[in-house]
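2024-03-11 09:14:02 INFO receiving multi-entity request
2024-03-11 09:14:02 INFO entity count = two
2024-03-11 09:14:03 INFO echoing inputs for audit
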Amino acid sequence: MARFLAPEAFSAATEDLSLLPFNLERTGTNQYLVANMVGDFIRLTEDELNRLVDLRIRPGDGLYEKAYAAHLITGTNQTAQRQLLAARLRSRMSFLRQVTPLHIFVVTLRCEHSCPYCQVSRQSTDRSRFDMSEETAMRALDIAFASPSGRIKIEFQGGEPLLNFPMIRTIVEAAKARSGKKVDFVIASNLALLDDTVLDFCKANNILLSTSLDGPADLHNKNRPRPGGNSHKLAVAGIRAAREVLGPDRVGALMTTTEASLDRVDEIIDQYLQLGLDGIFLRPLSPFGFAVKTKQFQKYDANKWLNFYERGLRRVLEINRQGTPFREFYAALILTRMLSDRPIGYVDLRSPAGVGLGALVYNYDGSVFASDEGRMLAEAGDNAFRLGHVDHDTYKSLVLSDKLIDAVSSSLTQCAPECSTCVYESHCGADPVYHHATQGDALGIKPLSAFCARQKGIMGLLLDILENSPKDAAILRRWANA
Amino acid sequence: MTLPLYGTASLSTGFQTDRARSVLRLQSVDSNSERHAADFALVKTGEEFGRAVEANWPSIFIVSDGSIPGPVSEALECRVVTVPQKYDYLRDGDVLGFDHSSKKFRTLFRKNSAHNSLLVTERCNNYCLMCSQPPKDVDDRWLLDEIKESLALIDPNTHALTFTGGETLSDWEDFIEVLKECRDRLPRTAVQVLTNGRAFADSRVVDAWRDIAHPKLMAAIPLYASVDHLHDHVVQAKGAFDETVLGILKLKDRRQRVEIRVVLHALTAPMIAETCRWIARNLPFVDHVALMGLENTGFAIANDAMLWIDPVDYRDALALAVDHLTAAGVNVSVYNLPKCVLARSVWPHALQSISDWKNGFVDECNRCDEKPDCSGFFTTGRPRFSRGIHAITA
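2024-03-11 09:21:47 INFO inference complete, emitting structure
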């Protein structure tokens, strides 16, 4: 067919090719995992990688096509490859447009539970000392309303925030009376004190409830002791009541993994299924508060936790294969990062870090922290992330404080050693508080970081399933856009 | 069945010689609506002819093999066109283009069809291996003038209208003016423009497109691969991939509606899963993706040896392609492929996409439960049938 040209006529000459930025990691003797600028992965052999870097490639050799589709190369005179990367990067980073969308109010540090893993070092007595005053609350609201976001979320934390329910009422009403922002409310509660008054109030004000459920009764009650030993019973009853009154999507539960949980992931997941919840968040212990003091945190390492996580994830996938839609929420979060460019501002998984820029925490005593974990450190005597006080600071002075700027700028994964060249960088985040708590340094030495080990472990696991288990991959792809 | 959309009139009288062509609209003899200069009474019987004369119709369009009156006399001061009986499908509200000297006519618009498309030009800067409308390098700018005239005659309640080519943006400034006419005259009509998208790499074109501001305007742009030279080979134009992708980005950057179209043949179908994974990852913001079975006509016949692939041989790849897109939240449809060659998971996406005037079925289909909801086949060109065709029965 003389009029038509053969494929070779459309091939670029090698001298017209340029490399685009990418990161890589050796995954086997001859195997590399390669990620482009926005975290699309491909696998290359050592020979392929060397040919790519030397641009010893040409259309039709298979490697050219792989590298081009993955945005590792571009024709020097082309623009679409670079524009696609730019558009996608812009979308991924656009969470930065929402500055400080989360404001946490610690309305009391008192709690009727006495969990040994408590990360906030709850107090049991003395109402006057550990409850937030109305004056403090109103000053905190001033700061929250001075943040640039058009829509903010106010989360009530404790202690057990329902122990100071009148202050929740006051803050909700005051926030609603102010104009200029759309405000969502969440109460993080163990639900032991949930009653009709609270439920009615939540319904009237469209307030979400977030609670703790560690698994079956014996495990939950062991992790979460309270007088009467009935924490599990009350939490389950509370979840049921909240689902009925507020709606099934208006109450969420979180679990915390202790050493006693490690062999029981199936039972834990089944507990969530039985309650009709649509997923579970398999969450490790954090190195804060009593979790450190009582040495709970040291009882399992990242590997043990990853084994637990993988068994849990595979159980969740099995449930899906059997026809019940049910998600593991951390995987869903990571998958959204890996398979889409939607902006994810999840405070613990972003860079620039979420401290201050993603959330501010107003403690019961009026001190302001850059994150929930930051105030947990302060309860143990470390004020590294205490940005100021509602009495003498403004939104600007807090967010532009040297402490915050130092923490954010010193922890950027985009330029941190180990992170900036990490194949998973696009999907990970900076966690300066964690690394300060564990290594005394906001940046941290990543090969020694359990945070890093868990992140890489989970992403490696998800990639493995996406590449090698077609049925499970089809399920996981759907989590990314749910 | 294939409707003949082109033809030659057996008779025509009364047309002035100062212009070469006219656009005609057919009206019922008894129509009471205000007569436009382009309106012709549609006459199929002698009795109707009588009524038309009685009603003082200045223009009469006869569908007949000749049995209807000879009264077409010089004495009658009327424009009269007679076309053969096989054009009996013509109805009132239909619009035709008519060439005075050759007596050739083309049906431009059929009021009772959901598949109206207007040819904008036969010129194109691509030369696709499977083109069903092979491009010609001719001066056919009169087509745009004819379209402008037609738009005034098209029923404003028309649900959908497609502009096709050639490359519709070959004379982009004139064509944008036509689309502005559509905005003013047919604001409720979904207007789809088939274009290779390359012109949108030029910001002036894409800005002008945005400024049309038709509420239901969509650019339908073909993209055949995730790799430059593979796409460029299919469209036979070096540099096309870069311009097309850039064009899609610029359109979406200006919030314009975009459909991506992939024609499935031996060069594109085997890698369709990878192409759609790439679209899901890189262009998830497009409004629709259409994966289209090949119409075996035009260049597709000439390149049959290079292009033919039995659809059952890419059934699994197509299912995976559809899954990649749906999982990413991208609207996806499969066009022109009968259900019996598709995986069940693809059925909800398979549409009856073949235009009514060139759509048909085979004998096997008469035993099939799915026939009422099936695309069937093209009747144009030289149809090729999959070895996978079989009646689906419960």
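2024-03-11 09:21:48 INFO post-check: Chain A touches chain B at residues 1, 3-7, 9-12, 40, 59-60, 64-65, 68-69, 75, 78-81, 83-84, 87-88, 339-341, 474, 477-478, 480-481 (CB under 8 Å).
2024-03-11 09:21:48 INFO post-check: Chain A has 19 helices and 15 strands.
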